[in-house]
Amino acid sequence: MDIIIREMREKDLDRIMEIEESVFTTPWSREAFLLEMTRNLLAKYIVAEIDNKIIGYGGIWLIIDEGHITNIAVDEEYRGLGAGKRLIEGLINLCSDRGIRAMTLEVRKSNLIAQRLYEQYGFIKSGIRPRYYSDDNEDAVIMWKSIEV
Ligand SMILES: CC(C)(COP(=O)(O)OP(=O)(O)OC[C@H]1O[C@@H](n2cnc3c(N)ncnc32)[C@H](O)[C@@H]1OP(=O)(O)O)[C@@H](O)C(=O)NCCC(=O)NCCS
Fold first, then answer.
1. Which of 11, 62, 89, 131 has the greatest count of CB atoms below 10 A from its CB?
2. CB under 6 Å to ligand 1: residues?
């Protein structure tokens, strides 16, 4: 099955919210996504599709010379098919196209699946933000990646 990566559009938001609410304990609101897409000039959001159905999405803030991944999620029914990798590659490409050479993200300490995915793309654990997640006070692992020219 072909996975297509494309920019997120406003009309995608119903499906994005369906995934967001099923995946995260403290999901972003629809308004938060809308503001990111329409007002935040630093933000870029992409979706992964199979057969015209959105199965995942990811976002990044492009801040001068740094890319900060804000979120990445794949519908549980479509995991393990490579969509997570395609989304990370899409976000890395957005950075490299702009000459950005460093990327960072936070990930829950217990989220070993996501950490493993990021490590495959050269993200390295470089610190802890203690009690970063307000719902359960879990620590965040900070990861950084440098992009080779
Ligand atoms: C993390 C996530 C995006 C991965 O999406 P996915 O489409 O299943 O990922 P892929 O199929 O591209 O797999 C990529 C890699 O993830 C890791 N991975 C995926 N599923 C895994 C599993 N069940 N066990 C261990 N590692 C796993 C592996 O490193 C895998 O690479 P490999 O197949 O070469 O071993 C997805 O699990 C998800 O949405 N999780 C919930 C939201 C989340 O945690 N987001 C990250 C917040 S920082």
1. 62
2. 23, 72-74, 79-85, 107, 111, 113-114, 116-117, 120
